[in-house]
Structure formats: C-alpha cells, structure tokens
Amino acid sequence: MTLKSFISFGIALCCILLTGCERQVSFSADVKPILDNYCVSCHSGAGEGEAASGFSVDDYDSLMQGTKFGKVVVPGSSMSSSLYLVVTEKVDPKIHMPPHHDESLAEGRGFALSRTNIETIGTWIDQGAKNN
Fold it and tell me: Hey, how many other C-beta atoms are within 10 angstroms of the C-beta on 126?
C-alpha cells in the first residue's frame, strides 16, 4: 500500500467513524429523568411554572405541546428551541431555567443544569426530539 493510499484510507475511515457513531439519545431514558430532577417541581400540576406559562413536563406530549405562548422544542434544531436556550442561559437572565439567581422572575429556585445534562437535551432535540 502506498503512502497516498494509506492516508486516503485513514481519512475515509475517520469520516465514517465520526459520522456514524453518535449515540441516539432517548427521551424516556435520558431526557425525562433530567426534566424530573430539575423541572417537574414547577412545571407540573399546580407548580408555579405551569401556572404562569402553561408548560408541563409531565410527559412527552405535554413537553411537545409547549407553553401558552407556543412550542418550546423545534425537532432537529436545538438553537431554535426555547427549552434549550433557557437551560443554556442564552436568553435574558430573568428567564434562565431552572431559576437559580436573584434576577429570575420566578419565585422558586433550583440549580443550573450540568453541561452533560444540557448537552443531552440539545442532542436529543438535534436528533429530532423523538418519543423514544
């Protein structure tokens, strides 16, 4: 095998490995537990978040319905999804979620999501926000 052939083979192999190995994120196994740990206390039942916005994270259908102001998940585009934008703090500090600082409009307080949890939500949305 010539050096040129070896390099071409190596590049092709890297491309295949990099594009074909992304793990499918599961709503039920990966995303729902994050929502249950960080969001459900306010965005379920009579919680402050659900009362103010109509947004519930009780189940997949409720999440995908969004708020009384519109959808919060745009399947295939985390950067177009307000759910992703509020947890990554790419919006006004008053609406960061979960609310975790004094500037927040919400009365309740929680803790910011970890980078891993944020990436999980973003990847799930970018993969199509499937009910899996």
Answer: 17
CA angle 49, 53, 56 (to 5 degrees): 65
- Look at residue 3 and tell me if it is in a domain: no
**First-to-last C-alpha distance (Å) of the chain:** 45
Query: Cα–Cα distance between 99 and 93 in angstroms, integer?
Result: 9
Residues 94-132: tens digit of each pLDDT: 999 999 888 888 888 899 999 999 999 999 999 999 999
Residue 85 lies in a domain: yes
The boundaries of the domain holding residue 95 are: 23-126
Q: Decide if 2 is inside a domain.
A: no
CA 48/CA 42 separation, integer angstroms: 5
Instruction: Output the pTM of the full model.
Output: 0.81
Cα–Cα distance for residue pair 113/106, rounded to 1 Å: 17
For the segment 69-80, the average pLDDT, to the nearest whole number, is: 98
Q: How many domains does the chain have?
A: 1
Residue 115 lies in a domain: yes
